[in-house]
Amino acid sequence: MSNSNLFLKSGFVRAPLQNGVGRYVCQLQRIVLKFCKSHGGSRGLRDYIEQDLVDFASNNPSVVVYLKPRRHRSPVVVAEYLNGDRVWMSMHNKTHSEITKWIEVLRTQQGDVSATRLRKYQYTDYPSVQGPWTPFTYKDPKLNVAELPDPEFGANNRLPMSATEQLKIMFEKKQLEIKPKEE
């Protein structure tokens, strides 16, 4: 173990690793904007609250937004994530555009992963030279450029005709037989 890891807390990645494969779940749970109504260092955060906070809240309904006015204090943004991490960030003398960018960074990250020494659940003395297996390991590379749905890659082209499809064809044949007799 190197000296850089001695004072870091160790833990496992607690956020979903394949977040966004099926659907995306925003990891930001709550954001608290602490500011002073009269302090000059809070001007950028006050501008953000007046201009962009309503749009942020409507675009991110899963994030709870709290405003906490405090007298004669420096502005602070505290972000809390689904995995339990809290990130505290000072916004003293930051402009409106800088605060917009930092809040977007807080919204898109998973928590304070940089301050954690990551550990694995599995361990082996002989790691694989080929790399980890994924569901796409043995897939046909033509799939990368194909326009889907493509019958060449679908499983339906190898299946026999279903009973419903057979009934539809029989019904259409009967309809064609009945129509010439009626004329």
TrEMBL record:
Origin superkingdom: Eukaryota
Database matches in InterPro entries: Ribosomal_mL43, Ribosomal_mL43/mS25/NADH_DH, Thioredoxin-like_sf
SMART domains assigned to the protein according to its UniProt record, in alphabetical order: L51_S25_CI-B8
Localization, UniProt: Mitochondrion
Ribosomal protein/NADH dehydrogenase domain span: 37-110
Keywords: Mitochondrion, Ribonucleoprotein, Ribosomal protein
GO biological process: mitochondrial translation
GO molecular function: structural constituent of ribosome
Location, primary (coarse class): mitochondrion
Pfam families (alphabetical): L51_S25_CI-B8
GO cellular component entries: mitochondrial large ribosomal subunit
Family stated for the protein in its record: Belongs to the mitochondrion-specific ribosomal protein mL43 family.
UniProt protein name: Large ribosomal subunit protein mL43
